[in-house]
Write a structure and sequence with these properties.
The complex is a heterodimer of chains A (950) and B (354).
Chain A (H helix, E strand, L loop, with lengths): L2 E11 L13 E7 L2 E4 L16 E5 L1 H6 L2 E7 L7 E8 L13 E9 L3 E14 L14 E2 L9 E16 L13 H30 L3 E11 L5 E14 L6 H4 L11 H6 L25 E3 L28 E15 L10 H20 L4 E12 L2 E13 L10 E3 L27 E3 L7 E3 L2 E2 L10 E15 L5 H29 L4 E11 L3 E13 L9 E3 L6 H24 L5 H6 L7 H12 L1 H11 L7 E3 L3 H12 L7 E3 L17 E9 L7 H22 L6 E4 L11 H6 L10 E2 L7 E5 L4 H5 L17 H10 L13 E2 L8 E18 L7 H23 L4 E15 L4 E17 L2 H4 L9 H7 L3
Parallel strand pairs in A: 9-11, 20-22, 24-25, 26-28, 31-33
Antiparallel strand pairs in A: 1-4, 1-8, 2-3, 2-5, 5-6, 7-8, 10-12, 11-12, 13-17, 14-16, 15-16, 18-19, 21-23, 22-23, 27-29, 27-30, 28-30, 32-34, 33-34
Chain B lengths: L1 E9 L6 H8 L4 H11 L1 H5 L3 H22 L2 H6 L7 H12 L3 H7 L6 H5 L1 H8 L3 H19 L5 H9 L3 H16 L13 H13 L16 H9 L2 H4 L1 H15 L6 H22 L2 H4 L2 H15 L4 H17 L6 H18 L3
Classes of the chains: A alpha+beta (950), B mainly alpha (354).
Amino acid sequence: MPGKLKAKIVAGRHLPVMDRASDLTDAFVEVKFGNTTFKTDVYPKSLNPQWNSEWFKFEVDDEDLQDEPLQITVLDHDTYSANDAIGKVYIDIDPLLSSEAATVISGWFPIYDTIHGIRGEINVLVKVDLFNDLNRFRQSSCGVKFFCTTSIPRCYRAALVHGFVEELVVNEDPEYQWIDRIRTPRASNEARQRLISLMSGELQRKIGLKVLEMGGNAVVGYLQCFDLEGESGLVVRAIGTACTLDKLIPGSEIKETLPSSSSPPPFSPSKLCSRQSSSSDTDLSLTPKMGKTPPPSSPFLTLCLLLSSPPTLDLTEFPFFTLTCFPPGFLVHIGGVVSARSVKLLDRIHNPDEPETRDAWWEEIRQEIKSHAKALGCHAVVGYSESTTICEEVCILSASGTAAMLNPRFMREGLCVYSRFDDASPPSCGFCHIPYDEFNMPFPAQLTYCYHCRRQKVPDVLFTTIDLPAEAAVTGKGCLIQARLCRTKKKAQGEVNATAISNLLPFMEYELHTQLMNKLKLRCMNALFGLRIQISVGENMLLGLASATGVYLSALPAPGGIQIAGKTPSDLSYDQHISTMQKRINDTIAMNKELYNIHPPECIEEVVGSPIPDRQRSRLFRSTSESSDELSELDLSHGKKDAFVLEIDDTDAVEDIQSLLTDAPMPAGFYSCNTEVMPGIYNWTSGLQMFTSVRVYRLNNANLTNQGLNKIFTDLCENLLKSLYFKLRSMIPCCLCHLNFTVAVPEEELIQVRRHTPKNTSPILFIFPINILVSIRELEFGENEEQLQFSMELSSSSERCSPLPEVRSRSLRSTRSLPCGAPVTVVKMTPLSFLPRTRIVKYLGIINMFFIRETTSLREEGGVSGFLHSFIAEVFAMVRAHVAALGGNAVVSYSMKECVFMENPNKNQAQCLINVSGDAVIFVRESDQEAIPPLITCGQTSTTGADGTT
Amino acid sequence: MSVELDVFVGNTTIMDEEVYQFWLDGYTVNDAVKVRMEGGVLEECEASAEVLRSDTMDQYRTFQMCERLLHSPAKLANQLLFQIPPHRQAMLIERYYTFDGVFVREVLGKKLSKGTKKDLDDVSAKTGVTLKSCRRQFDNFKRVFKVVEELKGPLVENIRQHFLLSDKLARDYAAIVFFANNRFETGKKKLHYLTFQDFAFCAGQLIIVHCNHSRVLMRPALIGKEFLQDLKELKILITDKDLLDQHKSLVCTALRGKTKAFNEMEANFKNLSRGLVNIAAKLTNTKDVRDFFIDLVEKFIEPCRSDKWTAGDMRLYLTHYTNSAHILDTFKHQVVWDRYMGVIKSCILKMYHD
């Protein structure tokens, strides 16, 4: 009995009326863990019951503690008939199992019912007493910390990065079991919620075991996904990066971060060897130096000295890292994006305990990724992620990452520090240098000497799935670049369908790539970060959506323009047509240069802390002016013509040009990117707003040509962006970070039910949910903004701290009109791994929640939009409540991984599944002075308190 | 191609105050979109009508979901569903409970019953306020009425605390509740010139003195039980011929030469005095209370107005009229008189305009 779980039910509030006669409720609570259930007394006739129960104690194995959630059910007592359930609360107690995370869960939780949504709240206290268990063969992995964050968490230092961990568990989907025919959908959905909660607990425990085996104590970049395979079952899988993390003690590490060149590099080969012998299946001996990346404005830049050392890493299985952001110097070179896809036919999983087929499928893909990386001369893959898309029995598995060379040495930051003002030392450009052999290139590419150091070769463009390294030298600002593609496909079944899809895939990848390349050139940029390509399958179409953040890396050559060429240049009007097109393109490029501040030197000066030295700038300037000459040369010399020359005869090319030019420019004051930080912008305020948007469109039959579909798809995406800009107009200047699109084409059977008018024989419904998780960060700009700043709160130094001026300043004024202050803690949510201008002081544990909501009165709830709107709001509320109960005030690295929506308007029904995850944290606001040396404790807890009232 | 579903949810609930106003005013989504388009938001953000429509729909949905909470504003602060900064909460509540002057003028003094609610379409047609908005406002009145009816303590403070309203709005609601409870007649043609604010002010005057406890006392100040008899005693001022003459000469002496309307004042003194004192006597009868304002206008304000008194004349007259009574040696009800005249004077001064 290595653990004792204790729970206490304190009170309820805002309960629904369960007894129509008295307009009151006789509520009591069942508390269940594993197979043990306790009950509170009935608190009669109240909507705000005060149970104040005793402590219910569960003595359980820590294995169960990890797997099982605590289930709290609120019921209405009924003397004559069965008790009615009001709703449930599932509490994941995992955060209590780690000594460094939360110690108690205490707070108001929304009582959730799959049919009625949130029905009041319940106040619960939960504690865990753990006994030490030294059993070597234990099945639990208590104490291993999990982080969704794809970088080393802010208040930790990575002592060792062990490498890739993965696991998957499968089960039958309760919705497809025989029992589902006789039970209510509500019971079935509750069973599903419970099962998934259990499965993710189990998965986490198993991954934890692997980490312990490797000698680590944490999983960073933990990515868990559900595959709802329908008939063939339910797969929950996860990948992550095992690490050994040391907690940073505020104060002690200040010395370390200061450049003390006196200290010798503590390069310790012994350490390297020591950890090896353990027989973990994925093992990579890597030791990054510091957990803390300097802010982009830091005057110190690190230069990697490892220019010529050959890869010496001992790579046993998969040298993959789910991290996208690394300590400086960790990344030596980047090869490029590697990705692999495979189309599979689903079959029933016969033995859930041996999910061999699924494992084998992923194994295959990972091998492929690994060999791709090798071909690029790289020994590791960073920014690695996996995903699936399922349409009936066809399933596409995808994996992608960035091939890279990592630094196997233990480097100290003090070793090679150059001042920004030192003319002889360019900022770091090492990661751009090619890792592969110049004379034996894996693909045709144009190589030049690095525009920074002039010593190494760099490619002409660089695509990656990781975030922009903090030390990278960037010219101008970045922007979001999207490539969108639709392809029709014949409706088919089984193997024929799978073959058709796999035949289409390479073409889609190629076209998406071409589109990205063209759009990149059009914006006069030369590198993509955070590239994410999603391909979704529908009954009769395939959808591809690639998003990335384009940027101009100073180390790479300036991109050439785009030239249009006609194949039959005989007709005069035709020539004219081409030249007008060419002119439009050239104009757009010129406009974009202005827009993104690329190249005019006076603009560079505006960027605060731009790490580009004068010399570099002038060189850069020169190189862009040369671009036209370069262009013609490139046209002839290389096979990658498509990136530069568009031949207009080709219908595809016409389409390409159209899609190039139809991208509406962003309204002034807006910036957007899909990475964590916006390249070229450094002056964030702490104003932050996260939101989710979902849209579903129905397509008419008429538009079923590829071109028509493409146009529609592009318009949809553009409209959505426009809509966002419009909604957020009051926050200008603002940046939409981590803009993350998800597309899906739901199965058609849904559709057929929806229309009963015979006129529409087969209206193709094109459900298209886009979940966008965006955080907005305000920028400080002109004087006007400064005047709005709020100076009462930060007593001493408020000069440049203008955090979301309007909201906070007003909030204080208005508190007088409200009684008793706001009792609800404000919880911020963000898909970023940090909150600008704040310091995360503690990670409280991972949040991983799964909800199902259904309705049988769709019209009454405001139709599909009303239904989903309230469901998403409820999900947010439940996430916030859990974080607040853990004692946190924010969720970082938040993401909505799954949002599956189904409806049947004829029956007035709808159902939706949502899966969200993130890291619960406590943050404190940093005053501006303290922001410069980022590790000093600011001790200004009072500011968070004040903020908490907003 | 059509949009089937379009949802936008922020962690901090995003609301547009302008759209909120349209929603409160009972505009349909289409109308709101139209007005917004004319308002020129589109040009400023390069958005299309579609974008505007989607935004408006989103906001309307949010408001609809919030409406339930706005019915008991205290809940808004500790609910978990929407994360709304306090200043926004205050704004939402205040605007939700704000009413249209023209609308309230129509229902002021009416019973807040189902019957009245059924007639709201007429009110809507008459005032130009949409039926939806009329219903909201009417329900607000009714809700506030129901809550304070059951409560002890000062009326305004109760409303303020329960509905988290600003002081001004709480006072207005107190007036509405007060009028509804006493069913004051406000709809007669002669009273049309009076605005809601005039009535609200008078209500404030009438409430100020009393209303320290519960529903029984949600009545004019002057109807306190111990007061009833005393008010009747004031009648002596007009029934006793000597007293009336004495009072008149005292007032006339004081006024002589100070106003142009002196002659009219002198000529009308007895009528005016009778009017005021009779109103006091009538207050003792609950049924007659509802005629308070009409009496005031008919018996006092109209005669003065036809004699072209200025507001200054009125003030002067009432001051001396009140004070002179103290000098009357046979008049014993000074305290009651002061209390009564204090209220009446300020009411008349407020109501004396075109």
